[in-house]
Amino acid sequence: MIYDIDIAKQVAKSLLQINAIILQPNNPFKWAAGWNSPIYCDNRKTLSYPEIRTFIRTSLASVINNHYKGANVIAGVATAGIPHGALVAEELGLPFIYVRSKTKDHGKQNKIEGYFEEGQSVVLIEDLISSGKSSLEAVSALRESGMNVKGLVSIFTYGFDAATQNFNNADCDFISLCDYNHMLPQAVESNYITETEMSILKDWRKDPSVWKK
User: Is 104 inside a domain boundary?
Assistant: First the structure.
């Protein structure tokens, strides 16, 4: 689910402008899953641009204020969700914790870092959703620790049907500031890609696992 069309357009424009999103339909990237992909997304780059960083922070906070009222903790999903989550927590004046990708193998062997109490309501911040697997592992860790997960908010999602199904199966709500379908028209409007290239990019989105194999 997209929060606001105007915000989606502005986020898409910003991500393309700073090359946080790179589109290469004729020279695809290779994902860890083995897929060929015409898109590479690295939202960490937004942290280096104060105006963009601020817009993302306030937009994420707006989602929480309007859709997840009553949240009393903000959590970041390691690793890229941590800085954005901390910024949002500061914006909202709320405590911040983060969830590791795996349990720490020394010391107290924590998976969740920071102070929280059982029964508290938490919203997770994620930078990017593809399949949703890592995000939902963080959701499970928080629930197992006795927290009430109100939902997850991301900067960008590819909008895969599998991700939607995974979140539905986990009974976890999620909202994104921008998605693949809203980014493509902005890429054409910004002369980042041509209409022909957009057609190629839409084909990838239909079945990314077999595209250009």
Answer: yes
Are 158 and 204 in contact by the 8 Å Cβ rule? The answer is no
- E-strand ranges in 32-71 read 36-37, 39-41
Residue 173 token pair: 């709500």
Q: What is the CATH number of the domain that holds 177?
A: 3.40.50.2020
Q: What integer pLDDT is reported at residue 212 of this predicted model?
A: 78
CA distances from 140 to 102, 145, 167 (A): 12, 9, 11
184 in any annotated domain: yes
Q: How many domains, in total, are found in the chain?
A: 1
Buried b (16+ CB within 10 A) or exposed e, 76-92: bbbebbbbbbbbbbebb
CA distance 18 to 42: 10
pLDDT at 165: 95
- For the chain (length 213 residues), average pLDDT per consecutive 10? 93 97 93 89 97 98 96 95 98 97 66 96 97 95 97 96 95 97 95 92 89 75
Q: Report the pLDDT value the prediction gives residue 106, as an integer from 0 to 100.
A: 58
- Domain extent for 72: 5-206
Q: Kindly tell me the sign of the dihedral angle through the C-alpha atoms of 145, 151, 152, 153.
A: negative
